[in-house]
Amino acid sequence: xxITAIAIARIHDLFxxxxxxxxxxxxxxxxxxxxxxVDVAFTEAAVGxxxxxxxxxxxxxxxxxxxxxxxxxxxxxAFIVVVITGGVLIYGTLDMPMYGDPMAPIHHxxxxxxxxxxxxxxxxxxxxxSVLASYRGYDTLGETFVxxxxxxxxLAILGRSRLPRRHHNDEDGEAGTxxxxxxxxxxxx
Amino acid sequence: MKQKIILRVIxxxxxxxxxxxxxYVQWHGDFGPGGGFQAGVIFxxxxxxxAMIFGVAxxxxxxxxxxxxxxxxxxxxLYTGVGVAGILLGGNFLDYNVLxxxxxxxxxxxxxxxxxxxxxxVAASVITIFCTFAGRRPEEYKEDYGEN
Amino acid sequence: MExxxxxxPYWAIIVxxxxxxxxxxxxxxxxxxxxxxxxxxxxxxxLYITMAKVEGGTAPILxxxxxxxxxxxxxxxxxxxxxxxxATTALGLALVVxxxxxxxxxxxxxxxxxxxxx
Lengths: 189, 148, 118
Hints:
With 189 residues, chain A is mostly helical. Chain A has helices at 2-10, 14-34, 38-62, 75-93, 110-121, 127-135, 137-158, 165-171. Among the domains of chain A are: 1-68, no CATH class; 118-159. Chain A contains eight helices and no strands. Chain C has helices at residues 4-26, 30-52, 72-103, 108-117. The N and C termini of chain C lie far apart (57 Å).
């Protein structure tokens, strides 16, 4: 994964960069499976390596497909910021429990309750679904609203395609006004 | 891409199975990995594959823009409706215990309905976003901003 | 420093995170910034999932005869975060398309120059 990240930073052809992002997401999904997070791996493979890559390719088709080589500016400043932030984060991990430690504090409070009581209170084998939809159902409602807002936002920013409307305007006998913006607000697109 | 015979034939063969797999993931989220989000994205991926090979206009014949907008809203309303039904039947908001006779039965009904709502919204949302990107012609910027 | 072997996975993930942050800061192209944000995002999720793993546990799906499971709570949070991440990526890409329509370029230096001219 580190090699993919370095390649993304160095390559200027944006099409290759988008493909490498898809590969990076897929490697991330494989890493999640190794960590026993199967639901998360499923979602990351579907969303990160699927939908995200397709949307980026769509953006590339609508804009340019090459990065200007002179655009890597203030490299030294970025490097210093990155090293300082990484140093602070590593200093923060010195207090953390070992990787995979069963005695870590996060495994002993709420998670124990979910794993223990889920079969009697909810009755589903998949604990992640029962937590997501039942114990923390309110958060999932908020998340559904977020996805809805994203779709509404994209509709508002990019608008709808005006392709078929031109012919109808000319047939109606109007003096064919070139770019009348109200044609894109037609409700019957 | 209509001229590529292999792509056309294989995609026509695969798309029903992709949609079927999405429905399988949706309903079996209780027993294995899966659930609403994954199923919604896979369902949308089937439609995106169809749009990539046969064109966005073909997808618009199957799913007009008004239908996807209505589907977007129906998912969220279904989720909120289950929550309000919890209130109407005597419990709290999003309380599934009161939805059926037994506690685990009520939980099961509530979770299945809620995940279905999430799946519908996620599928409609990803299809909408993709069709908005793909339906836009690259030279439209001259019409938007005049001479710039 | 006696905890060195147990903390190495976290440090490797922090290195990945910093690579993503570097891509966001040091590159001027807007699409590359969004790509760097995605790299940063995937590595942050990896950090949380690494914290959730329990040695000798399995995936948190209840089954007969298995006693030790990995912690399901971070999985739930990360599921929500992944979906929110794709939502923000989609909105960011839509804004990039609009910026390209308005300025004709997606390099932020050129956009600054065009802004200074008008």
